[in-house]
Automatic annotation (TrEMBL):
Residues found modified as 4-aspartylphosphate: 68
Keyword rRNA-binding assigned: no
Gene source species: Xaviernesmea rhizosphaerae
Protein name: Acid tolerance regulatory protein ActR
GO molecular function: DNA binding
Function: Member of the two-component regulatory system ActS/ActR acting in acid tolerance. These data implicate that a two-component sensor may be involved in pH sensing and/or response.
Entries under InterPro entries matching the protein: ActR_PrrA_rreg, Bact_response_regulator, CheY-like_superfamily, Sig_transdc_resp-reg_receiver
Biological-process GO terms, alphabetical: phosphorelay signal transduction system
Amino acid sequence: MDGDGPDENDLDAIGPDPSLLLVDDDGPFLRRLARAMETRGFSVHTAETVAEGIAIATREPPQYAVVDLRLSDGSGLDVIETIRRRREDTRIIMLTGYGNIATAVNAVKLGAIDYLAKPADADEIVSALLQRAGDRAELPENPMSADRVRWEHIQRVYELCERNVSETARRLNMHRRTLQRILAKRAPR
């Protein structure tokens, strides 16, 4: 996550307002990412909770934001909504270890410009933050496995069923206990 210093191209791309809000409840990750982003030319504010993120976004709406989806006191989607109400031009990235298509769609509807799964490094985050409208995202080196695609589909149906396990199992024609075991596991790679 470390860089030697701000790249001239990054400084030009960041623009006149380098304010960046990082919201993540993983303290060590948050501090490493903050240092890495500062070396790339951003002026960083950090928050470890939804409440702190909302307070900072209300007081000083940032030009850029990287927000974790699941925080100790709630959902990062609430921080995104607050930022969008205060400043429409903020470039927001949703970052999470629990990636699934349904939450990615929800994050984009609320105003995120991209969605990255952890562990994302500072270079990936900077690239996503500074990507210009119309630019195509690079194809992933390692596309999703069949197991991951299945897991994503199950998560999408689960979200569409408002997180109701019985209804999701019925729609997927799956035994309820089997579904509960799948939902309890981490996403496959």
